[in-house]
Amino acid sequence: MPLYELTYLISPELNEGELKDFSRKINSLISKTGKISKSESPKKITLAYPIQKKREAFLGSSEFSVESQKIENLKKELEKEKQILRFLLIKKKGIERTEKPQKTKEEKSKPTKKAEIKEIEEKLEEIL
Fold it and tell me: What is the pLDDT along the chain (128 residues), one digit of tens a residue?
């Protein structure tokens, strides 16, 4: 299943108890469709510009894996929530490890020829 990240801004009008309940509600929406791997509790931030006439908001995020066909249902559920000012849902790409090709025994034992300073100076004189 693909890995997704949801980052959301919640209205600053919620008190601490309501904020925790709302955060649990969002996590339960995600849990219905997929599996949460990481969730950060919302923290109050000052916005760079007003969103829906609000200068502050609570910023929260969650990482989860879900089947691609179920993600549209999750988006619709999040759009219905009036307390969410904005949200961003992105699909995270997997980290691909690229391994260096291993040298064979012949390549390991083969000595490399190092150029001597005299040879380098001669070549430079030829070029110039």
Answer: 889 999 999 999 999 899 999 999 999 999 998 899 999 999 999 999 999 999 999 999 999 998 888 999 999 999 999 999 999 999 988 643 344 555 665 556 666 667 788 888 888 888 87
CATH number of 42's domain: 3.30.70.60
What does the alpha-carbon distance between residue 77 and residue 26 come to, in Å, rounded to a whole number? 9
Number of domains the chain contains: 1
- Neighbouring residues of 25: CB distance < 8 A, sequence distance ≥ 6: 81
User: Cβ neighbours of residue 124 under 8 Å, at least 6 residues apart?
Assistant: none
Domain hosting 49: range is 3-92
In a domain, 116, yes or no: no
Q: Quick check: pTM over 0.70? A: no
Q: Please report which residue ranges of the chain form alpha helices under DSSP H.
A: 16-33, 71-80, 105-109, 117-127
Residue 107 located in a structural domain: no
| CB-neighbour burial class of residue 85 (10 A; exposed 0-12, middle 13-18, buried 19+) | middle
